[in-house]
Amino acid sequence: MEDPMYSLQDVIRCDLCETPVPPRHCDICHIHLCEDCVGEHLSDQSKDHYIVPFKLRGITSKCVKHSTKVCKQLCTKCNIPICPLCVKHRGHEKKDILTWFETKREVMQKDLQDLEKSIYPKYQEAATNIPVQRAEVNKRSQKLKTALDKQGEALHTEIDTIIKEMKSEIDDMDAQHKAVIDRQEYAINRTIPEITQVILNLKRLLDTTDVCLVSEYTSRTEEFTSLPAQFQVTLPTFTPQEINREQIHQQIGSLSELAITFLLDEPQIITYIMTGFSVLSNRLHSVSCLSDTELWTTGYNDSILRLYSLQGELLRSVQSKSRNMQEGIAMTRSGGLVYSDPEERSINLVKGTQIQKLITLRGWIPLCLCSTSSGDLLVTMDSDDYKQTKVVRYSSSTEKQIIQWDDKGKPLYTSGYFKFISENRNLDICVADHDAGAVVVVSAAGKLRFRYTGPPSTPRESFHPCGITTDSRANILTSEINHRIHIIDHGGHFLRLIHNCGLQSPRGLCVDSRDNLFVVESFTGEVKKLQYCK
Fold this sequence. Notes:
alpha+beta, Neuraminidase, 2 domains, 5 helices, 30 strands, 25% helix
């Protein structure tokens, strides 16, 4: 709609001199004024005046208590416009209504900007992610049902095989039984003609008086008294077992329970652990949980690995062989500590106070590392000329896998330092690539799954991850230089930020068995234990 103030057909003019487009307005006299006529108008002291910007004309109103007066002020305590006769508000703080209105507009303008550019896009993103979550539920449910069907088919196949074998045993026993019957039948059928002949002979002898013939007779009655091939059979029986549903359930397998946790709107710092790292040249770098009550730390340009209790007590310290910095540390499944030594090009295992060299590299510099659920080691490393970066999987000290290129033959990671690594619960390999401004996630086979470059709602903000870990729900947590920690799910969807809770320069991260988050603060020398979910 066209603004009538600037319309060529009906230009607004000063009511005193007819200058076009007057910038002022008297909200009591209801006339438009140019700058030159404001003084002339105010010179009429026979009435009250209130000069306001033209666009704010109508800001004043008649007092509801004193109809002859105009409200030029706002009582901030009662939050209502008042006139000079409103004695009820004496002693209350008051503000010029124009000044208050302008301040309020600035607040509303900022709120509008926050809502449009930050808050609303987050809700849009969350709403967009709802169908994805539902699809993921269906997908996971179908995957579980397929696994159950497969297990059921395997059990049915095994049962069918057992039933078939038992039926075959019955057939074998029937065959043995019938063979004995056949032998009996053969013997009987062979004897019957003999008995028939004996009967005929006896009848003839009984009709004769020939003494010679009778004297030759020999009785065979005793021979035929017992049937030939006599046998006794113990017939097989089937004794069905009572069907035990619990045992069948155990044979099928178990289904873990659904666990729903909620990310806290305001993460809580539970514990502060002072490590003594506070000098800029020797600042804190990495942390790894030995248990829920103890953790290892190391710093930039520092040659000592330190084990602390949650009360900040130094329990043990170990001097590295090169007496220089360790780039990364990680706990093994057996409770040992491994660390990378860029200067010696080695990866080492700490046992008690002893150090055992596990791997020595040639042409490559070991950086950060992590221990996997299978007991392997994943190590990020740069080439000696700093032109290539790769992730290598080791089983013991044997190279097992190299992850360096995507399907198009392009590098997965930028070259240079600051490549932090963690294995997710779903076996994905997650690398916080500081220089690339991305978290690069590949499958266990090394196939690129996604790159996370920051919340979609703030695409222009810089994102430089400098620490990474994963929790029991396969969420990925990564710290960045803007004093905050990003939480994303296993599919790369942004969940929320951990910030505004006093974090300063967060770097290394790790979680304990209860998903409490330990955060290294590089410049303060503190490790903070946070609860971010429940």
